Amino acid sequence: MTSDHELQRINSPEALLYTKRPAVRAEHIPVALHRFAAPSGPWPWSSRPTSTAGVSSLLSRKGNIKANGGLPGVPEIPPWVGYPGSAFPNWTVDVTDRSGIQVLLERKPSSETAVHNLDVLHSGQFVKRPVLRNSEVDRLWDDLGQAREDGITLRCFFIGDVCGSVLQMFGARYSVEPFFFSSAINGIPARYKEDVDEGAAGDHLTITLPFVRAVDSTMYQTSSDAKDDTEYELVIDLQSPLELSSDKTLLLDQLAVHLVRDPELPTLITLHPKSDFWLTTSAEDMCTRVLMAGKGVYWGRIWRDTNDPTFMLLVLMWHALYAWDESMDALFDSILTSEKRAMNREEVGEIEVTHELHNVRSALLLYNGLLKNFYNSIEFILKHPNPAFAEDSKSQELMSRECEHLLLEVSRLQDTKDMCQQRVENALDLIFRTLTVRDTKTSQSQGWVTQQITYLTTIFLPPTFIATVFGMNISILSSDTTGTLKEYLAISLPLIVVTFWLMLALNRHLREPDTPFYHQLAWPFRDLHTAVVGWTKKPVSPLRRRARGIVTKLGKKNRRVDETERTKLRGWALIQDQLADIVAAEAANPPLTSVVISSQAKQTS
């Protein structure tokens, strides 16, 4: 009976990915878990303490992997079967289960499982070796253990659609940290340098680098093709492929490489899990790209001048750089097409243009972080030279020069990305401004139409009034009715007066909101009172009105002068009163000096 834990593991996304092929292409790449990008934490892929009782401590990675068996009647177990727990005790079944490695360990070789490999010779030549298909993986362990011929600078393995046995063989033979496989299958960016043995001259470099690659839109067919074109998702998914109007689709690809810089066994391993499903670079394509670089004069000269296997990392970095460059070209062409549509009067209001530009701008925000990660990966290679070539000044000079070339190219890509982002913002701003101008013109045209309708209404108002009057049901106009003109006027005139009264009262109330409304209802009487008072006053001649104004002004001026004089008089009176109070106080309480003087005068007399 299957336990709940096993059901959860079987139904996990990793298990579904490797056990059942969906009917359509993948629409979403899982978000990277950056906290698992390096084995620096004591609990990789584990949220609770795991028991390591009975597991020997990791003293030597190479010494931990031993062949079991050898007893009579007991078949010998290959040493790679116990990987990764045999070499890394902290990678228990629970940890490998959560990281997705356990699904790979239980997976059998498929028709797409293949190991492409080639050798880089001291002479600078690249020699392709036979490909190991799914039916030949059983002899892979023996091939990995065979002694290499002299004159080999580096052996490269490109693993496509890795299965459990292939993963264990490579991990056990070259002492690969399991986090390399977990980072590769989960798309986690990683940069890590590990010293295998302090006494040895070699080390291990691990780089997992996501980048963007452009493919034809015809190659990428998803279930979104069946959706209605007028429907759009409310959330812009940055992990989904970006379909452009230039018949290109930008996909997230990755470069997962592990370099063993052992002077005795220099090896490079690249992992390409489910490349057909994700439409990423396959192992065969990567091997072909490396062979094409080896046939060039430029890289051939470099490999003849140095035997440092680190330069193969730069070759792979150039592959990612080419993919970035092609993606930026496709993105730039798409932005140009959107700009043309934005400047087209007929298409500027279409939602498709705005939606595509918003998707491009959101993708550019993601690409900013990916380009920074690309730049940091090249600096990581430059800052960690091969210990075996520490005294080789020529090799160090070549490494610095090639890394500088790559860094300059990445900086150029960043400038191109910034330029594309600015052009997208300009296009969006152009669309919004164009729509604003269009709305303004529409409002003006609607106002003009309303004005014309008003004119027409004014023209037809008298005829309408006349037609209404002659259509009234009164005896003066129609002989077959009993209604009279007096009755019509008796009903209509009071209604007209009341309506006019209420309209003016409401208008006055809006202008004077502090005045109660019932007070505004009395406006006819107040206006009548004001008019009557104005009529009863005698008319004043202009000369007399002017004279009254002059007298009023002089009166105000004299009033101000009188107030000033009165203020001065009150001030002097106040001062005199204060002086009188001071004199009276001194008389009542004379100072000590005056008392002494008066007493001396009496004695003298």
TrEMBL record:
<dbReference type="InterPro" id="IPR045863">
    <property type="entry name" value="CorA_TM1_TM2"/>
</dbReference>
<dbReference type="GO" id="GO:0050897">
    <property type="term" value="F:cobalt ion binding"/>
</dbReference>
<dbReference type="GO" id="GO:0005886">
    <property type="term" value="C:plasma membrane"/>
</dbReference>
<keyword id="KW-1133">Transmembrane helix</keyword>
<dbReference type="GO" id="GO:0015087">
    <property type="term" value="F:cobalt ion transmembrane transporter activity"/>
</dbReference>
<feature type="transmembrane region" description="Helical">
    <location>
        <begin position="453"/>
        <end position="476"/>
    </location>
</feature>
<feature type="transmembrane region" description="Helical">
    <location>
        <begin position="488"/>
        <end position="506"/>
    </location>
</feature>
<dbReference type="InterPro" id="IPR002523">
    <property type="entry name" value="MgTranspt_CorA/ZnTranspt_ZntB"/>
</dbReference>
<dbReference type="Pfam" id="PF01544">
    <property type="entry name" value="CorA"/>
</dbReference>
<keyword id="KW-0812">Transmembrane</keyword>
<protein>
    <recommendedName>
        <fullName>Cora-domain-containing protein</fullName>
    </recommendedName>
</protein>
<keyword id="KW-0472">Membrane</keyword>
<dbReference type="GO" id="GO:0015095">
    <property type="term" value="F:magnesium ion transmembrane transporter activity"/>
</dbReference>
<dbReference type="GO" id="GO:0000287">
    <property type="term" value="F:magnesium ion binding"/>
</dbReference>
